[in-house]
Specification:
The chain has about 80 residues and is mostly helical. It has one domain: ACP-like (Non-ribosomal Peptide Synthetase Peptidyl Carrier Protein, Chain A), CATH 1.10.1200. It has 4 helices and no strands. The longest helix is centred in the first third of the chain and has 15 residues.
Length: about 80
């Protein structure tokens, strides 16, 4: 999976969770929960949806690596 593919999957998933959010306006280095104003359940639902779309398993021990948009993109590129 390349960066564009990863970003597209992430965008689609977060559009369902937070309608109206444009990831192009999100600070890629900021924590997603605060940037998107979502709670931990929303983030968990996003992780599940990303897994369903990509087959990439993101274990709880790796959640620290995906706290930011950039981290999530990189994680999917590396593991996808």
């Amino acid at each position: 999976m390349n960066r564009d593919e990863a970003r597209n999957v992430i965008s689609e998933v977060f559009r369902r969770i937070t309608p109206g959010v444009d990831l192009d306006t999100v600070d890629a280095a900021a924590e997603l929960r605060y940037e998107l104003d979502i709670d931990s359940m929303d983030l968990l639902n996003a992780v599940i949806a990303i897994h369903e779309r990509t087959g990439v398993d993101i274990p709880e021990t790796d959640y620290g690596k995906i706290e930011t948009l950039e981290g999530l993109v990189e994680y999917l590129v590396e593991h996808g």
